[in-house]
Every structure is written in C-alpha cells, then in structure tokens.
Amino acid sequence: MFGISEKEYDRQQHAERLNRITSKSVVFQELLSKSSVDDLVFIGEKAIRKSFIHSIGRYKHESAQGTSIKYFDFDLNGYSDRMTCSIDISDKQMSFAEIQKLLS
Hints:
With 104 residues, the protein is an alpha+beta fold. The chain has helices at residues 6-34, 96-103; strands at 40-43, 46-49, 53-60, 65-72, 84-90. The strands form two sheets. It has a three-stranded antiparallel beta sheet with strand order 3-4-5, with no helix packed on it. Strands 1-2 form a two-stranded antiparallel ribbon. The chain starts with 5 loop residues before the first helix and ends with a helix.
C-alpha cells in the first residue's frame, strides 16, 4: 500500500466513498428540486426522470444504429464513482425523432 498503514488506507478509502456519496447527494437534491410529478418518461423498458437526462445522441455500430441517452444515476454502489449511466435504444425499438418528441 505504498508506505501507508492498512488502517490509514482504510480511512482514505472511507473518505473517498463518503465524498462520492456527498457529491451524489448534492446533485440529486438539486435535480429533485427542479423536477415535477410529470417528469417521468418511459423510454424503451426504462422509466427515467426527464430532469435526470443530460444528453442524447445518435450511435452507429456495425450491425445497428440508434439513440444513446446519458442520465444521472444515483446508485450508491461502492465500486463505481461515476454519476452518470447510459442506455442505448435501437432504432428498431424507438426512433430518435420519437425520443426527442417524448422528451420535449
């Protein structure tokens, strides 16, 4: 552990996790304060709050194309320090235009 004791390493890990939780909490409270009851939309097989979505865009793979939606994810999983997640919806499931209309 590069010259630090195991106890100090555990303290650092705990402090980092606490910082992640605190950061997610601040963002969550801010987004929640701006959301409304009608904010929930169903896209594909997921229900997401419109206010949690921060970007949508097109993707193109060799075998398929569709829409990629990035949204804030508040899972407090200790293994992940990302605050965002993404889902890909193929054009066969729902077109980009339909998703744009749903989110407007």
